[in-house]
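Sat 14:20. Reprocessing the chain from the morning session after the first attempt stalled halfway. Input below, unchanged.
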Amino acid sequence: MGASRSLQRSSPMRLLIALLGLLLFLWWMIQPPSSSASLNINLPDASSATPTAAMHPPKKAPPITHVTMNNLTATANPLRNQERLLILTPLARFYDEYWQNLLKLDYPRHLIELGFITPKTHSGHLATAKLQEALRRVQNGSKKHRFAKVTILRQDFDTPVGQTERERHALKAQKERRASMARARNSLVFTTLNPGISWVLWLDSDIVETPPTLFQDLALHDKPVIVPNCFQRYKDNGVWKERPYDFNSWQDSETALNLGKTMKEDEILLEGYAEMPTYRALMAYQRDEKADKHTEMLLDGVGGTALLVKAEIHRDGAMFPTFPFYHLIETEGFAKMVRRLGHQPYGLPNYLVYHYNE
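Finished this time. Tokens:
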């Protein structure tokens, strides 16, 4: 009996059948699924799916653009050299006076690109709607009046303080407020700055009066960073007068430098507050009505109400610190960073632009 079972287990026929079964199993395992089987897989409805570039590659490959940055200039005569200007505005509220003043700038519009960033607030929503309506009228008009490009960004972060003038300028709100402003400025410039831009003009949304030749006048000085003096018109007993407004453009003082040495790493120096006397030389108070409006002065801090920057300075890495940078933040921190990069900011104490009077 033992010999018989041994012969059955070693039968060539049984071994052949087992081998064929193994081969059939292996063949079945390596076959791709049939089309009918694929229909049983739960896939999202194609009509509701969001297509992506990876899912739907373009039928025609986009062209490759070659840009020779060595040929890009930022000179004292931008019009002659057809240099492109990027005007950037953080826009919390829309003032028609700001918009009308912007339209009066006499640099050719085909050489101007615009960039805006608006906050996630009710006033930000209103500002965006009004801006879009104003842009439609211009961009749908005659071709010679259209701007080369317009970009509108919405902040993806909240505004930390209120937007009334009193709330914006309260001392206790400055660190958070200006860090948020710096973040908005950085988002705006690094999103919109393309390889063809020679100059960046930062123009606040509450600057309502400038000379039409603002850009050319500032560019004429051929400086890496330059800022005019920002004043404000107001009525006093029915008489129009004017006063300094922006105190962020200054020359440093020993008092301020020594004060910085005593501060904690995360504390900031602020200008224009009686609670923090720095005794800096403020450009706001250096105006001489009888002197040449193109008189220059060296600056250690700059304001951002109307700030002209050669685009190469931003490309070098100069940004608006959202953190205490040598105890400075936002535009004043920007000036410090510019100096650390080996460039010198300048100011024009006798050249005025005007801020909206709330």
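The longest strand covers residues 225-236.
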